[in-house]
Amino acid sequence: MEKILVLGGARSGKSVYAEKWAHESARPGPVTYLATAPPRPGDTEWAERVERHRERRPAAWETLETTEVVSVLRRASGTVIVECLSLWLSSVLDDAGVWGDAGDGAGVGPGDESAPSTPIDIVEAAVSDLIDAWRSSRAAIVAVSNEVGSGVVPATRSGRLYRDLLGNLNRRVADVADRAVLCVAGRALDLPAPLSAPGDVQDNSCHQRHPVQHHVRAAELGVPAPVDETVEARARELIDGLAKPVGSLGRLEEIAVWLAGRQGEYPPRMPSRAGVTVFAGDHGVAAEVSAYPPAVTAAMVRTVVSGQAAINALAAQHGATVRIRDLAVDADLPDVPQEVGEHKVRRGSGRIDVEDALTPEQVRIAVSAGRRLVVDEPVDVLIAGDLGIGNTTTAAAIIGAVLGLDARKVTGRGTGIDDATLEHKSTVVAAAIERARPVRDDPLALLSTIGGADFAAMAGFLAGAAEHGIPVLLDGVVVTAAALVAELLTPGASAWWLAGHLSVEPAHAAALDYLGLEPIVDLRMRLGEGTGALAALPTLRSAVAMSTRMAALADLEL
Ligand SMILES: O=C(O)c1ccc[n+]([C@@H]2O[C@H](COP(=O)([O-])O)[C@@H](O)[C@H]2O)c1
Ligand SMILES: Cc1cc2nc[nH]c2cc1C
């Protein structure tokens, strides 16, 4: 479900925008209007203002006058309008007793180490709860908040404190929202993606952006985190000085240097925490181009959930976590945990040889879901895996379109199709490449024309990992097709990716070559799910062990 934040000053039109969004977007389920203003007995001007707001709302909407935003978001379905976060924050500050010392950290409860100890800690805990509830809520949410702080610095300490806390709250909500909108003078402006990693916004800083390509809206462009080239150079020097002939550990040495540059330290830290996210989706063309029926996708989602798929087996062996997200499986899956479907965009993507896979809006939602999945769990290495009958057709089409290659060169046997099906698959890929020709270097239009919600989310995920500076191990042909799109979305993102393995699919080698990536292992695998990437994880760990445990050449006793 889409979740948006609407910011604006007084009388900017933000409330009207939020109500219109709730009214027009025709989502199933009830609409709940959550009024967070505390009662103001005796204030007739305020009462009239509340009444005017009430009259504007359709009678079918349920109004709740409460500051318990977190519990409402946790249990709500349908659509929730939060009016507004700034008043909610005021009540949190009041309840936390912030004003007593204007938040400079006086204790509120001696002796209990697990409890928040200062008013600011209490506020922080409440905001974290809100973010958590926002993320996990099944409802579509539109939250209104005041944009303050553009004027003069408040004269009072409490004024400055409120301004700063509200600014932080708005930023944190924007980080987990699908969209943030700024209203000014009755007009609404879609705000672009964050310029730096969420939680890392620095006031007064001036961010250098990549040149904006004319065909991509700035809102969708990200910037990869910088790589520390000084650390890389030092790592190279120190590795050359270890007790071995220079260069004799080959690729292990290169990987150690690569990791050091990404982590900003030598020796690099052991990538102990690896997180696999499997992106599942069905594809309109699947029934004609695969060796297996489309129903396998839903069945395999359940298998991954039950911990019995190939990726679970490898993850258990290598100490990695696995989660799966259904972006576009063509089935309802009531028997899997709710979070599996938290980013579901639709049931099956359109058949790409004759129609668009997704609407532009669905692309945007799926890309932003992928970006958000990056920051959900703290890991040292991220892996994207794929699952979806027919997805090698989409992958071949994307790779063929971006690289300008003929369908025959990029079409492979996927799950193991026979010659006749390969011939037909090749004509489907050719038609898709042809349809995509006008948009081949426009990542969002490409995803809409011949992608799919799973591909869009994977592209957002891979771009987001680079934006947050988290190393990635790429899997096979499907993930690498999404990586090509991610590189268009966030130019330079590939600096944060290693190619885990080489898939048997012919388009994979071409795409890796284009990205300048060399696969770590070649085990003739063609499964997807993230298995090829995970097969390379022990090599990364070997590279770190080499860096941390070896003696220096200079210490040899000759
Ligand atoms: O990632 C790869 O390189 C790869 C190569 C061949 C097949 N697959 C997996 O097999 C399914 C797609 O194959 P197909 O023949 O149905 O297009 C899908 O579930 C993928 O995860 C994946
Ligand atoms: C059984 C099966 C498992 C898979 N896992 C990823 N793609 C798959 C395709 C099939 C057919």
From TrEMBL:
Gene assigned in the entry: cobT
Keyword vocabulary terms for this entry: Cobalamin biosynthesis, Glycosyltransferase, Transferase
Family, per entry: Belongs to the CobT family.
EC number: 2.4.2.21
Catalytic activity: 5,6-dimethylbenzimidazole + nicotinate beta-D-ribonucleotide = alpha-ribazole 5'-phosphate + nicotinate + H(+)
Source organism of the structure: Phytoactinopolyspora mesophila
Function statement: Catalyzes the synthesis of alpha-ribazole-5'-phosphate from nicotinate mononucleotide (NAMN) and 5,6-dimethylbenzimidazole (DMB).
Pathway(s) where this gene product acts: Nucleoside biosynthesis; alpha-ribazole biosynthesis; alpha-ribazole from 5,6-dimethylbenzimidazole: step 1/2
Gene3D superfamilies: 1.10.1610.10, 3.40.50.10210, P-loop containing nucleotide triphosphate hydrolases (3.40.50.300)
GO biological process annotation, one example: cobalamin biosynthetic process
Active site annotation, chain numbering: 529 (proton acceptor)
Protein name per its UniProtKB record: Nicotinate-nucleotide--dimethylbenzimidazole phosphoribosyltransferase
Any GO MF annotation of the entry: adenosylcobinamide kinase activity
Enzyme class: transferase
